[in-house]
Amino acid sequence: QVQVVESGGGLVQPGGSLRLSCVVSGSISSLHVIDWFRQAPGKQREWVGGIDRSDYVNYVDFMKGRLTISRDNAKNTVYLQMNSLKPEDTAVYYCNLGGKVWGKGTLVTVSS
Q1: pLDDT of residue 27
Q2: Contacts (Cβ under 8 Å, ≥6 apart) of 34
Q3: Average pLDDT for the chain
Q4: Closest Cα to residue 83, out of 12, 18, 21?
Q5: Do the Cβ atoms of 94 and 38 come closer than 8 Å?
Q6: For the residues 21-36, what does the mean pLDDT come to?
Q7: What is the C-alpha separation between 43 and 21, in angstroms, rounded?
Q8: Tell me, what's the pLDDT at 74?
Q9: Cα–Cα distance for residue pair 54/52, rounded to 1 Å
Q10: CA 94, CA 109: separation in Å to the nearest integer?
Q11: What are the start-end ranges of the E strands in the chain?
Q12: Residue 29 · residue 97 · CB < 8 Å
C-alpha cells in the first residue's frame, strides 16, 4: 500500500524557516508527482507548490521566493523548504502523491 508521511512541522518565529519532509513508501517508482497543500484554521485547503517527474517545480504566486521544493530519490523523500515565514503561513501542511494519496499533515505554527 502506497503511503505518504509528512514531518518537520513545529513552532517557528516570524521570519524563521522550516523544512518539511514527505516520505513516500510502497510499491512505486522513485519518480512521482508530489504536490504540497496547506489548510489554515477555518479555511479551505490550498495548493502551495509541486514537483513533477521531470523535477520541474512550481509554486503558488503568493509564496514564490520563499519556497523551495526538492527531491531525494534515494530516500523517496520530497522536501518543502519554507523561509521568511509569516503568521499567516500557520496551517497544516499536506503532501499529495499523484493527486490520489494524502498524508495526515504536519502542523506549522508561526508565532512570536
Answers
A1: 62
A2: 4, 22, 24, 50, 51, 69, 71, 78, 95, 96, 97
A3: 93
A4: 18
A5: yes
A6: 82
A7: 23
A8: 87
A9: 5
A10: 14
A11: 3-7, 10-12, 18-25, 34-39, 46-51, 57-59, 67-72, 77-82, 91-97, 101-102, 106-110
A12: no
